[in-house]
């Protein structure tokens, strides 16, 4: 399996992490003696199931360390375009590659065991997209003060993770609706209108199960999707706010 790490975000004045990053790349924010992205690369380095890594949004001059080859690409300022560029880079070096793991650079508490588990799950089925979630009970047991936002469904409460996967051909071909939804990730109202108000109503009234949601949203996107319920809260412990920075820093020291 091949890994793509999104590392291009730079917090702007007024955003929660700006006092810590001061105009620098979020991925390079130091945590417990290392840049945040280096913790992610260390987990990948310890994995037995990764072949290469694509880092998007940082130059080679940052001199990150990884057991596997790193290909550095510029930030295209769009999540979908970044994934497409990463997928093309993988395919150029590994023409027979079929899927890629997608990481954010701000989940520094993940481990090699977690990476290997995710690869095994992705390889166990044939879907276009794989999206990780964590149950509320799992998240709050591991990180009780993380204050994550949970989707309350009929059968489960979950928050989104930051380790996903996609078929390379699916990524390269692109999906206009998925791109619009991804670009609207900070605008819940716009996302809701794109997904479909019927689906949103079922979520809000807790009349939809997780399986129902996967089926309806996959149909809306015209893709086969799978939600992977991760037993590892670390997958969802991303660093977006100073309080989350303090949590992971304490955890890693």
What would you say this structure looks like, in words?
It is a single chain. α2 packs across α4 and α7 (176-183) packs antiparallel against α8. The protein is globular, with a radius of gyration of 18 Å. It starts with a strand and ends with a helix. A hairpin with a 4-residue loop joins β8 and β9. The protein is built from 11 helices and 11 strands. Strands 1, 4, 5, 6, 7, 8, 9, 10 and 11 form a 9-stranded mixed sheet that branches. Strands 2-3 form a two-stranded antiparallel ribbon. 40% of the residues lie in helices and 19% in strands. It is α/β, with parallel strands linked by helices. It has helices spanning 18-21, 36-45, 79-93, 112-123, 136-142, 168-173, 176-183, 188-195, 197-204, 210-221, 242-252; strands at 2-6, 30-31, 34-35, 52-56, 70-73, 99-104, 129-135, 151-152, 157-160, 163-167, 225-230. The mean pLDDT is 90. It folds into 2 domains: 2-130 and 161-169 and 228-252, Spore Coat Polysaccharide Biosynthesis Protein SpsA, Chain A; 176-222, no CATH class.
What would CATH call the class of the largest domain? Answer: Alpha Beta
Return residue spans where pLDDT drops below 50 for at least 5 consecutive residues.
none
Radius of gyration over alpha carbons? 18 Å
The number of domains is 2
Q: Could you tell me the CATH topology label of the largest domain.
A: Spore Coat Polysaccharide Biosynthesis Protein SpsA, Chain A
What's the CATH H-level homologous superfamily of the largest domain?
Spore Coat Polysaccharide Biosynthesis Protein SpsA, Chain A
DSSP helical segment count: 11
Oligomeric state of this protein: single chain
**Got a strand count?**
11
Query: Span between N and C termini?
Result: 30 Å
The coarse overall form would be globular
């Amino acid at each position: 399996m091949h890994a793509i790490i999104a590392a291009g975000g730079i917090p702007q004045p007024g955003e929660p992490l700006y006092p810590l990053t001061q105009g620098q790349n979020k991925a390079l924010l130091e945590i417990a003696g290392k840049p945040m992205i280096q913790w992610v690369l260390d987990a990948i380095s310890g994995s037995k199931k990764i072949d290469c890594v694509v880092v998007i949004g940082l130059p080679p001059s940052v001199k990150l360390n990884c057991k596997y080859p790193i290909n550095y690409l510029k930030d295209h300022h769009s999540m979908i375009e970044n994934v497409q560029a990463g997928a093309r880079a993988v395919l150029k070096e590994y023409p027979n590659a079929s899927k890629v793991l997608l990481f954010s650079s701000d989940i520094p508490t993940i481990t090699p065991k977690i990476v290997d588990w995710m690869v095994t799950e992705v390889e166990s089925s044939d879907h276009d997209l794989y999206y990780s979630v964590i149950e509320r009970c799992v998240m709050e047991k591991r990180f009780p003060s993380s204050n994550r936002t949970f989707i309350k469904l009929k059968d489960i409460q979950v928050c989104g993770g930051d380790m996903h996967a996609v078929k390379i051909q699916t990524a390269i071909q692109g999906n206009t609706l998925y791109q619009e939804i991804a670009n609207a990730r900070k605008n819940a109202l716009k996302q809701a209108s794109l997904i479909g108000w019927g689906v949103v109503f079922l979520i809000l009234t807790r009349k939809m199960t997780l399986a129902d949601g996967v089926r309806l949203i996959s149909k809306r996107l015209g893709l086969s999707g799978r939600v992977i319920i991760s037993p590892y809260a670390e997958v969802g412990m991303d660093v977006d706010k100073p309080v989350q920075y303090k949590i992971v820093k304490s955890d890693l020291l």
